[in-house]
Amino acid sequence: MPVSEHTLFRMRFEKTGTMRYISHLDLSRMFSRSLARAGIEAAHTEGFNPHPKISFASALPLGVESLCEFADAKIKGDTGAKILEKAKGAFPAGLNIAEAYEPERGFADIDRARFHIFVKPEGFGIREIEELFEGGAQVEKKPGVVIDVKDYICEMAVSMQGGCMLLDAVAKTNAQLFLNPENIIKAISAKFAADEYFIRKIEAYDIGGNVFR
Q1: E strands within the chain?
Q2: Which of the 8 DSSP states describes residue 5?
Q3: What pLDDT score does 4 carry?
Q4: pLDDT of res. 125
């Protein structure tokens, strides 16, 4: 049996700016084209219409910016450092490969993620938000399914940065418990006005709270 010339690499990438509005399908296509443009040779599927075999950790909600998205692909003849070097200038603005390394864990081991949620406070302050989530905040996760956001939040710290409120929240994002960060905004909006906000995903962790790699 021939030995594979490809090595599995995990690419940690950032999805920022206008890129936060592209769909997961468009992201997949753009990622494949950018790898080809960079001269990074990924393993392809077989058949009449072969395409690069790239697997992503999860679909990021539209409008959410992220500094820690993950894509796995089997790459031929490159090291992590070479992948980063080749990728410079080949990916569109807002889509940036920050790291490339051989993975330590599978995507199924991702348990939670840290989000920074910036909200312009209108008629509420830090204490009101703390009390809201300490007491429990129910939202409709999807039609007919109501959840208590508190059950999905591992930790949260609320502070002010200038005239903006920052919610530093670690929330469950595994297969059994998955919280769309937009539901945190939905919980606030049910009681207060929270029309102006911005969400950024900062980090992903495993079940032990270790940074996912």
Answers
A1: 6-15, 54-56, 65-76, 95-101, 112-119, 138-142, 145-148, 153-161, 164-172, 197-205
A2: -
A3: 57
A4: 93
- Written as one string, the DSSP assignment of 89-123 is TTSPTTEEEEEEE--SS-GGG--EEEEEEEE--BS
CB 180 within 8 A of CB 192: no
Q: Which CATH architecture has domain 109-205?
A: 2-Layer Sandwich (3.30)
CATH topology of domain 6-103: Alpha-Beta Plaits (3.30.70)
pLDDT at 168: 98
Question: What's the chain's average pLDDT?
Answer: 93
Residue 3 has pLDDT above 50, yes or no: no
Dihedral over Cα of 200, 206, 211, 213: its sign: negative
